[in-house]
From TrEMBL:
GO terms for biological process: negative regulation of DNA-templated transcription. One of its GO terms (molecular function) is DNA binding. Keywords: DNA-binding, Transcription, Transcription regulation. It comes from Enterococcus cecorum. This is GntR family transcriptional regulator.
Amino acid sequence: MIKPKYLEIKNELKQQIVTGKFHNGDRFYSESEIINKYNVSSITAIRALKELVQEGYIVRYQGIGTFVSRARKEKIVKFSDIEIFSFNNDKVHVLSITRENKKQILDVLKLTTDSYYYRIERIREADKIPYIYHKSYLPEQYVNPNYPDIDYYNSIYKRLKLDYDVDLNEESFIETNEILFPAPKNICKQLKINETEPVVFQTKLTSLSENNKPIEYVESHKKWNFYKIQLLSNN
């Protein structure tokens, strides 16, 4: 099937933006320049520019001109969660492992009402100072009910990798972070902080890429002064 001319032009112009010929904020081709460059009608030129505007690559200002968007969609931004401590002093303690079937969590894990999951509560410490309280929820088929001792699950990543050949780092996830102030009283007790201090509340839902079924849902509360984020763009 032959592509419409405006689509060919749009794709070529888009490639010029993505590969760096034009940078964010640069003046872009005008309608007349596209007409002359590609020997096309004004209708075709306008359609190509309109497509680029709709996809977020350029912006057009009447009477001023056309410019490359300062927030173009192809730009990759990496979000990093930076822990402010030495990993050499990091320890995890499992507090409890409980089999449950509460509707709220069943819905998050996309399980039926007659299904069960395991709730695993853990505390992470650095230099014997608690800084993260985790509650992890896993469908019961991914938890070994005959675990030798409670610390068998101090690393859920390790258990899923060794016991079920699932690498959580390779699966897709959705993560949200928000500040809670003041911190809930039960969290203050777990993290040994004052009730007037804030905490970072993080939720993370990881799903298997092969079928999009959730394999782990985690609720974490972090001490605010142990939390830092970094944003990196590709250029």
